[in-house]
Amino acid sequence: MRILSIHADCMWYRVTKKTKLAEPVDILEDRMEECVVLFCCVEKLDEKNPEHVVESAKKNVTARLAKLKVSQVMIYPYAHLTSTLGSPECALGILKGLENSLRAESISVRRAPFGWYKEFEIRGKGHPLADLSMTICPYEGTECDFTCPYCHHPVRESDMNPVCPGSGSCLRKDDTFGRRPGTDPVEKPVASTALLVPGCPEVPVQQALALHISHNLRKRGTALTVTGNPAVLNLLKVSDPEKLYLPETIVLEKCIEELVEKKRDCKLCIVFAHSDAGISYAATMRHLLPASRLIVIIFGKDPEALAALIDFPCEKIVDKAVHNPMQLRKKINEVFGWVV
């Protein structure tokens, strides 16, 4: 389940036209002030464990409400947050379940109708914590067998369907997702071109993980450029004197200049952030590369607080990593679908 949460002065909507999926409604127009608006999108994967999705969403939302000191919520169905929509029946059930579970916590809840075209107006408060994206995983707290290399969702082998008629499953438990038994994995490039943006080299894990990402992108055919301030670039160069892992490097100021002048472009941008300066770098890249996939790796002593500062579209990898890179490396591999 995907949720875009906005702390708002007010939210207003009015239904305009029904679809064939429209639920019966009595209220055609509604308004709520001093509230948190939840733009909610139920995904196909949520059908595996809808009760867990509702419970996890409730916990995440109530924690956010407590932090913002807000007791009013408007749930707004919004199908445009994913490319893998769940069934209408499951989606409506989960949205109603979230509505009821929040109401049971003494929260004032209103829900915009499902399956209707609506016009709406929202006035966000615009403070650093006003906007927040959430991803609710139906497998949270359990072990999964694979990560989908296309959508990066966790996958259990028991949930997969055979694709070879008459041959049963094409996978064994000791095989990698996407590999036929007895063969080596074939991994497609994550992107044809990529830009890697490490921040100031103050936190030890960044150097190792930057080389790890560079190595894995390049060996899968991605044309990669690494950009940063002179200090971080020199540190990486000293760590890789024979240039086994590092590709082209360019000072960040020059790189931004080329991006502004449209002399440089990329399909994927990865930014390291262990301070608010790193978040600013990521925001700059989002502005200069609006059509590119942007991944922000947030780490250090208080990564959750940093992640809360992000108010622009991106994918986030968050871990409290300072000296030990192993857990963050695992999360990075899962996002990219790398088998290493």
From TrEMBL:
Location of the Threonyl-tRNA synthetase editing domain: 1-136
Classification via InterPro entries: DTD-like_sf, MTH777-like_sf, Threonyl-tRNA_syn_edit_dom_arc, UCP006600
Molecular-function GO terms, alphabetical: ATP binding; threonine-tRNA ligase activity; zinc ion binding
Superkingdom: Archaea
SUPFAM superfamilies given in the database record: Hypothetical protein MTH777 (MT0777)
Signal peptide start and end residues: none
UniProt GO cellular component terms: cytoplasm
Pfam families: DUF1890 (PF09001), tRNA-Thr_ED (PF08915)
Identification of the protein by name: Threonyl-tRNA synthetase editing domain-containing protein
Species annotation: Methanoregula formicica (strain DSM 22288 / NBRC 105244 / SMSP)
